[in-house]
């Protein structure tokens, strides 16, 4: 909201939150907005679009409610707790012919954008292997994250969703031909379609291009720092890699590897946090119609379902 409001990409006219203190903090960013208690009150206003930043179990139903009123929607990830919910929201946006965006924010880091350019230009040759990691030493601080019925899953749908999206987005979304995975909770293996959330997961995606992507993510892992975030693409003539700096959740370096040499592509600072929302707001200002690009979120959701074995 700060990113949208500060440079006036859109006017923030109302904030709805059932917790008064949260609404008050939001109004510090948008002092001219009115404070409401419910989404229904928000939808009664004359708006162009809404940003949904609520617990995951509410995303699909709230997004569909806004779309049915003819409003564009920007929703935090995941768009739904599973592929069926995700597809339902996308279909609602298509039927209403309204713009729908999802906050897959790591696409908007300069590090990943530069890597995508390098890979797309063929500078590292044919990509045959990908290694992507997101370990969060802390994990979520809200109880609903650890309830499958409310969250849809654990670290995979919270963190792994970014890794799966980055892998497929960078390679222009090749078909995923096979998925294998192992899920753990406090060091113990979980069955397929588990009734409890996982705090560690490892998955392998086989792609129609012949490449293989190895993905690992976790909450509360002892990693010696706050976070480990990496995405490396290995090609026949080199590699491209992004990784966080000194355990930071926000600072990233991108590098191009050729044998034992490396070339720095991007380094901090990079204020990328609000770019996904800003991109949605700017697109909304020029064209509020449905954008088929959001259908990629359904492809990611299908892969996540396969990781969970459901």
In a few lines, what is going on in this structure?
With 310 residues, this protein is α/β, with parallel strands linked by helices. It has 10 helices and 14 strands.
The CATH architecture of the largest domain would be 2-Layer Sandwich
**Major sheet attributes:** 9 strands, mixed
How would the global form be characterised?
A: globular
Radius of gyration, in angstroms, nearest whole number = 20 Å
CATH class of the largest domain: Alpha Beta
Individual helix count: 10
Element-level helix/strand string = HEHEHEHEHEHEHHEEEEEEEEHH
Instruction: Determine the structural class based on helices, strands and strand pairing.
Output: alpha/beta
Describe this entry's structure for a reader.
With about 300 residues, the protein is of the alpha/beta class. It has two domains: about 1-105 and about 275-300, NAD(P)-binding Rossmann-like Domain (Rossmann fold, 3-Layer(aba) Sandwich); about 110-270, Dihydrodipicolinate Reductase, domain 2, CATH 3.30.360. The protein has ten helices and 14 strands. The chain has helices at about 1-5, 20-30, 40-45, 55-70, 85-95, 110-120, 150, 155-170, 275-285, 295-310, and strands at about 15, 35, 50, 70-75, 100, 125-135, 175-185, 190, 200-205, 210-220, 225-235, 240-245, 250-260, 260-265. It has a nine-stranded mixed beta sheet, with helices on one face. Strands 3-4-5 form a three-stranded parallel beta sheet, with helices on both faces. A two-stranded parallel ribbon has the order 1-2. Helix 5 (about 85-95) runs antiparallel to helix 10 (about 295-310) and helix 8 crosses helix 10. The longest helix has 16 residues, at about 155-170. The radius of gyration is 20 Å and the shape is globular. It starts with a helix and ends with a helix. The mean pLDDT is about 95.
């Amino acid at each position: 909201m700060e990113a949208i409001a500060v440079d006036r990409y859109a006017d923030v006219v109302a904030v709805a939150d059932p917790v008064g203190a949260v609404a008050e903090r939001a109004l510090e960013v948008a002092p001219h907005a009115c404070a409401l208690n419910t989404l229904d009150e928000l939808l009664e206003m004359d708006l162009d679009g809404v940003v949904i930043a609520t617990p995951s179990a509410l995303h699909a139903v709230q997004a569909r409610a806004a779309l049915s009123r003819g409003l564009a929607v920007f929703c935090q990830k995941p768009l739904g707790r599973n592929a069926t919910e995700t597809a339902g929201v996308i279909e609602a946006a298509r039927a209403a012919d309204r713009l729908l965006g999802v906050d897959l924010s790591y696409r908007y880091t300069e590090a990943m954008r530069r890597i995508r350019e390098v890979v797309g230009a063929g500078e590292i040759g044919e990509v045959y292997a990908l290694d992507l990691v997101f370990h969060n030493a802390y994990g979520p601080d809200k109880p609903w994250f650890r309830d499958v019925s409310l969250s849809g899953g654990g670290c995979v749908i919270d963190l792994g969703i970014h890794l799966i999206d980055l892998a497929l987005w960078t390679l222009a979304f090749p078909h995923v031909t096979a998925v294998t995975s192992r899920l753990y909770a406090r060091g113990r293996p979980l069955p397929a379609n588990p009734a409890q959330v996982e705090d560690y997961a490892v998955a392998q995606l086989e792609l129609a291009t012949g490449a293989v992507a190895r993905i690992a993510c976790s909450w509360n892992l002892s990693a010696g720092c706050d976070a480990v975030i990496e995405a490396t693409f290995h090609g026949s003539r080199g590699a491209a890699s992004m990784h966080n700096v000194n355990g930071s959740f926000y600072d990233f370096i991108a590098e191009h590897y050729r044998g034992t040499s490396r070339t720095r592509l991007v380094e901090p600072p990079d204020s990328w946090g609000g770019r996904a929302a800003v991109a949605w707001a700017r697109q909304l200002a020029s064209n509020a119609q449905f954008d088929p690009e959001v259908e990629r979120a359904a492809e990611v959701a299908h892969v996540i379902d396969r990781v969970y074995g459901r």
